[in-house]
Amino acid sequence: MNPLILSMLLSNLALSVIITATSFHWFLAWVGLELNTLAIIPILAKQHHPRATEAATKYFIIQAMASSIILFSSTLNAWHTGIWDITQLTIFPATMTLTIALTMKLGLAPLHFWLPEVMQGVTFTSALIITTWQKLPPMTLLYLTAPNLPTLILFSLALTSTLIGGWSGLNQTQMRKIMAYSSIAHLGWMVAILSLSQSLLLFTLLTYILMTSSMFFTLIASSSKTSKDLGQLWSTSPTITSISLITLVSLGGLPPLIGFLPKWLILKELATHHLIPLATALALFSLLSLMFYMRLTYTTTLTISPNTTNSMMKWRFKLTKPLNTTAIITMFLTLTPLLPLIAP
Q: What is the enzyme's main class (predicted)?
């Protein structure tokens, strides 16, 4: 792709998030969402491959449908109240349709089926954008409308997403699909805390973006597309192999890594509001995600001893990607033990 065109598309991606995040009128928020969708489609389809074209088409259909439902819900609310303010979404049909639309845009279960297929059809860089940057506009709308959204439905979506994200990820060997189901499970935790603490939602979203980005940097630098490729990482870079262990464990949420902190705070907040059954179910369902993270960790670091392999099953070209930079970024993002910084 022409660098000028690519820079224009990336600029529109950034601009669309700014428009959606700073708008108080539903029409401007919808314009930001549409600009976001139109900017990402050429990036997804730039491979000129049938799988990439199929993924871009699926993504466009889902996002366009969700945007139309958002426009319908805002129009319905304005019809009854005469107000186009995002924060004044008051009638139940409008809040219900908005919740469904944002669930589709984010890929929350049970409307998650498009996300793994789209991510499997695009490059790792495009998948990184889908799982991190593209979550920001819908999350912004959830943040602005959180006090008016139906709490019971949000809790149901959270439980379903953590369960489906963990359970479906157990059966995968493709790294992009594993990261997609990881995204679904993490989004379930964010939706669980949405109506109780918006500041904790932002912190969970930030840590999720940092951990997911560091894992994708590792996969891009090592050209690992499947779990079998991760098992042969020693011959490519022992440093990246060691770092990927920490990244996976942090994604699983084990202390004292940064991935444990938001889950711990969410469980504490749920217990404070006497939602013990919900907190218990979330903690148990997260064990499913931890299972496939630990399986990847075992495959990566414990299956093959750290020496050069003579196997020709994987073509090993000379890597031109900045492995040292990736290692530094990954260590900075995942090895930061923030637990001692918490005030008692």
A: translocase
pLDDT in tens, 258-316: 888 899 999 999 999 999 999 999 999 999 999 989 988 888 777 666 555 555 555 55
* Residue 137 CA: distances (Å) to CA of 32, 161, 194, 267, 300: 8, 19, 15, 26, 34
Torsion of CA 205, 207, 212, 213, to 10 degrees: 100
Alpha-carbon separation of residue 341 from 9, 265, 266 (angstroms): 39, 13, 17
Is residue 96 a contact partner of residue 150, using CB atoms and an 8 Å limit? Answer: yes
Reading the block at residue 116, the tokens are 């793994």
Helix 175-194 and helix 276-301, axial crossing angle in degrees, nearest 10 = 160
Query: pLDDT band at residue 340, thresholds of 50, 70 and 90?
Result: very low
Angle at 217 between CA 213 and CA 222, to 5 degrees: 150
Q: What is the mean pLDDT of residues 316-320?
A: 50
Q: What residue spans define the domains of the chain?
A: 1-143, 150-335
